[in-house]
Please model this.
Amino acid sequence: MKLYEKLSDDYFKLFVRREGKVVLGKGYSTLWLLTCVLTATFLAIAFSNASMQYLSEKMNDPFIRWMDIPNRQEGKFKELEYALGEPENMERFNYESYQADNYQAYMFFGASGTDIRYLRVRFFDSMQTDLMQAILADDNVVGGACIDEIPDPTVGLFITENAIRLLGYDAFPAYIEIQEISVDADTLGFRLTADGMAHTPLPVLGIVKRLPSGVDMVASQFLFEQENNDNTYPFNMNNRSYAETLTYFVPEGVDEEAFAEALKAAARETSSIPAYVDDISFWKPEIASFRKGEYVTLRGETTPLEPLEAAAMDAAILETWGEKGICRVFDYTFSPYETSDKSYLSVYFNSLSQIRSFETWVNDEYQIKVDMSQVNSKENFNAVSIMAGILSWAIIVFAIVCIVLFIVNLLQSYFQKVKRNLGTFKAFGVSNRRLISVYVLIVGAIVLSSVLIALLISFFAQEFLILIHFLKDGTYSYLSLWSVKTMVSILIIIVASVSTVFVVMRRLLRQTPGDLIYDRQ
Model:
């Protein structure tokens, strides 16, 4: 016992410090090699985590889970619309809601008033759907540019930031101008293009990053119906009542009292008819914009303003005040009007697990072909999500196997070098348990050090990619190191490493001291 105690005095120096250096290898090669393996493992896990997060968000993205069914056969289309409302079908195919939409493309004037852009518009039957909630989500609205509450009815538009830039606007406008056929409206003082198109302002309800189906704008069905309204043609500017009144939107922050006075002064200088300015107050909600502001109206006192005089006043006043965001709007003559045909049925799925069976049902029961690219893309998202989950765990298992094999090879190679020394210590009474604990401590310390260094390297790699804005879709990081999966992986790696040392050293130390000293097999 006294001899063992004497050996114990030098225990730490002999085994943990000296033998630890041997296990570490020349130039700490073991540590760095294990660090490289672990760094590659953590980067793979981080990439897997980020990919899974990206896929999860895409899978839960309402734009991905929203399927369009085009109207190519009206009779069957109506039958399908009715069937989609059946609760058993909603449960069977796991969809939450559906809606009937229209689609149209229109020409819009750019900020210069001359540049013209062809933009696509989707018209929703309701502005209170799940899809509208997704469109108006905080992460999709640009800079908070969105109306507080959507008026019903409204002729306003939600437009993408990219479309606003295509129209040439530097700041977000309260109104944009659509081309509308208005032959002879120039006789009333309105601007017309060579083919008889007038500048007709429509309110902007919000600016968003993206919209479903790649359209540039979404709007209420009410706008689609009024644009096609052949009872009153509300957007046709060849309308004397429009020309006889000057109404302006005055954005918040502009002195509306000063503007009203300027408007009165312009009327005194230009108009042959006495005019007055209405009280400054909120005007018509159906043409309200996302921008807060007031409406100022100039009218003739006893008889309407002369259209050409009003046009001259408008040109003069906007030359001074137009740069402040003030624009002329109109009290459109809306009237009840409905369009029968819809361009699309849009179905909002809770998940994409039944997307293929839904496509088959629509095709077999109603002879309506669903765009296979939509089905395939949604099905692929679902499949890739499952595969990514399997592969991420496969990476972890592979990494653990590599580390275990590395430790086994390390210990076996090291054991051949020191087994005579170990035999001597066993001969002096040092137990196998004591010797095993030494190597558990040494290898455990090396693995833990490698884990910490590898985590640090992976973390800096992740932050560097974010710093240089190397992001997927400009938003999603390619690496996401910190997760439950990473923590579980670290725990498994440490436990597997310690267990491997224990099992290997226990097997190797089964030999007697004599067998170890004299290298007997």
Confidence is low (pLDDT under 50) at residues 1-7.
